[in-house]
Amino acid sequence: MVQPVITRESILNGTIRRLVEQSGDDGRLMTDQEREQIVEKVIETAPSRDSIWIFGYGSLIWNPAVHFTEKLRGKVHGYHRSFCLWSTIGRGSPSKPGLMLGLERGGSCNGIFYKIDRREIRSELDIVFRRELITAAYRPTWVSARISDKSSFKAIAFVINRNHNRYAGTLDDETVIQTIAEAKGTLGSCSEYLYETVLQLDNLGMPDRRLASIARHVRQRERELTQR
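Given the sequence above, the corresponding structure tokens read:
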């Protein structure tokens, strides 16, 4: 597993925010006040006061950076995982954007659910929202979750904001492969993000065949690029 740049410490001490500010991207960043208002709204609309579940479908699977009391594999219905967000501030640059995963409407998505205890809801939501809501590219959304031996419940997931200027829409596989093979940013390479997500999904026994196929083609493209 790769050593994560994003940690509790780097989120809380502002390191991640400063990396974004120094990236050269001219997009608007979310203010602390805006983010705090979203945290409060999530807490107010939570189906339970005892705990909150957070859904991880990308890097949150292998690097959650939050304190949780329970971790379960499961599925979200009504959304699917997609490379639909241009990344100019993490796994890419303004001159050569990368691509990040987001949740798009339709289908379903396997991932990890993290249970946050009521005593830590505000502090842990603050951390994960500082991480995911540096911009308004994602919308924290209550989604329908299902775990095999439990009844359905609600969890917070980061759904793509289609109105954001970095929303990529539906891209053909060739564009996705070439972009991921070439892009690098302040948090590392785009391909590293892809490979780690595929690896951890495989290790958890819930492989994503499309991501795995993209990863194979990206590896081949990277080899071709190094031989030029």
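The chain has a mean pLDDT of 92. Try to locate this feature in the token string yourself.
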